[in-house]
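User: Let's play a game. I give you a shape written as tokens, and you guess the letters that built it. Ready? Here's round one.
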């Protein structure tokens, strides 16, 4: 069954599930906002009740969000949240932690070295690589300028 590229595009359009854009945007806004609100509440609690400075409280809040994301990913809860909340759950730092942990959990049956060790940076590796590279380039530009 040979199809031209145009026929294939038409076939894909017929088979593709239509996404309810309005609903998806609202869910992403709600989930992302809830994650950010939890983070802000954590910062305020640490500042008011533990007497931390703002910067220290923000650092601990990031650690808390990352740890929560890792644990929820390990228990299979965070992927369901991502499925429901879409980009709202993927964009914050919790989504990055999820993207590092999920491949490691998926490949743990292959062992610590060839499973977890090799697959842990499958998704996050390029982000880290290009983030470091871009920082290096900008540092050189700043040094020259």
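Assistant: Ready! My guess for every position:
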């Amino acid at each position: 069954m040979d199809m031209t590229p145009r026929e294939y595009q038409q076939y894909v359009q017929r088979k593709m599930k239509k996404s309810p854009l309005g609903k998806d945007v609202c869910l992403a806004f709600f989930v992302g906002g809830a994650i950010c609100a939890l983070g802000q509440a954590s910062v305020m609690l640490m500042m008011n009740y533990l007497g931390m400075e703002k910067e220290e409280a923000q650092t601990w809040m990031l650690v808390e969000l990352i740890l929560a994301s890792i644990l929820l990913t390990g228990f299979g809860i965070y992927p369901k949240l991502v499925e429901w909340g879409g980009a709202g759950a993927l964009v914050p730092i919790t989504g990055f932690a999820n993207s590092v942990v999920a491949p490691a959990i998926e490949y743990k049956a292959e062992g610590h070295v060839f499973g977890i060790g090799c697959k842990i940076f499958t998704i996050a590796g390029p982000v880290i690589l290009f983030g470091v590279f871009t920082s290096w380039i900008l540092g050189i530009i700043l040094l020259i300028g």
